[in-house]
Amino acid sequence: MQSDPDEQDIIEAINGDVSAFKRLYERHLNHVYGLVFRLCGDRVMADDLTQEVFVQLWEKLSSFRFESKFSTWLYSVTSHICLSELRRQKRWFQRFKNSSKDSVEPSDKGDADLSRLDTLLFRLPEQARQVFVLHALEGAPHQQIANVLGIALGTSKAQFHRARKSLEEWLENE
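and the corresponding structure tokens:
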């Protein structure tokens, strides 16, 4: 796509230009980290998985076919990597759910509202949170979410509806 601001950097990075890849990294780091953090719920794990995303991105960049926006493809890759790791670490996730909320405290006053949303998100059941993050925050269509999570399309829609309803109720009651 010609309107994609990343196109030239992608082409150069595919040809081995590390500076071009660094520009892609810097352009997309915060968004990738935000998505990973909201999917996994732990800052240390989010740091590790974000690094893994960019390592795999360097290796897989040549498979990008310019049929969609790079950011759409990157966030799909990010979701797959993160969700695969969460499946592998299911026991860790159970420990997290029972631990304190330290990992979702605001790091400064500037992200207090974001932290409030993050705190509420982590009250949701795992799959409902993942569907909500991917659909509401990342704009992924339900069919894509269903494919990524290995669930039915109707399940994705139902999980999103339940998550949205729960979040609305919690916000009303605060």
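(Above: one complete record from the training split.) The domain at 101-174 is CATH 1.10.10.10 (Arc Repressor Mutant, subunit A).
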